[in-house]
């Protein structure tokens, strides 16, 4: 697995932890496809979807800045391999 694939997976794991509150009426679906993180937002009220998107992009920006600051993930060492 290449580093960029790992980065997409890390972003997925971090961003999928927080589901949208039920009262928001928004659904968020995240899927990793190789090195691409696909995100689908849906909802009935444009204002609520916009708020959800803004919050998501704030989190995504923080995740990408953190990965950029600390560099690519290191391979995991196992003495069993």
Describe this structure in words.
- The chain contains two helices and two strands, in the order αββα.
- It has helices at residues 3-15, 46-70; strands at 26-33, 36-43.
- It starts with a helix and ends in an 11-residue tail after the last helix.
- The protein has one domain: TATA-Binding Protein (2-Layer Sandwich).
- Helix 1 crosses helix 2.
- The chain has a two-stranded antiparallel ribbon with strand order 1-2.
- The chain is elongated and about 50 Å long.
- This is L antigen family member 3.
- It comes from Fopius arisanus.
Quick rundown:
By secondary structure, the protein is α+β, with helices and mostly antiparallel strands.
Fourth-level CATH superfamily: Alpha-D-phosphohexomutase, C-terminal domain
Spans of at least 5 consecutive residues whose pLDDT stays below 50 are none
What strand line-up does the widest sheet have?
Answer: 1-2
Chain-averaged pLDDT: 86
Q: What Rg do the Cα atoms give?
A: 15 Å
In N-to-C order, the SSE pattern is: HEEH
What assembly state would you assign to the polypeptide chains in this entry?
single chain
Structural class: alpha+beta
Give the percentage of residues in beta strands. 15-25%
State the share of residues found in helices, binned by percent: 40-55%
| Gross geometry | elongated
> Number of helical runs?
2
Cα-to-Cα separation, first versus last residue: 16 Å
Q: Write down the CATH topology.
A: TATA-Binding Protein
Number of strands: 2
CATH class category label: Alpha Beta
Main beta sheet, described? 2 strands, antiparallel
Integer count of domains: 1
Going by CATH, the architecture would be 2-Layer Sandwich
Family: Belongs to the CTAG/PCC1 family.
Organism: Fopius arisanus
Keywords: Cytoplasm, Nucleus, tRNA processing
Main location: cytoplasm
């Amino acid at each position: 697995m290449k580093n960029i694939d790992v980065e997409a997976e890390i972003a997925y794991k971090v961003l999928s932890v927080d589901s949208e509150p039920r009262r928001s009426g928004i659904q968020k679906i995240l899927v990793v496809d190789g090195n691409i993180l696909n995100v689908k937002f849906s909802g009935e009220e444009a204002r609520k979807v916009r708020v959800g998107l803004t919050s998501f992009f704030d989190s995504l920006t923080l995740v990408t800045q953190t990965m950029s600051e600390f560099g690519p993930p290191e391979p995991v060492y196992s003495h069993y391999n």
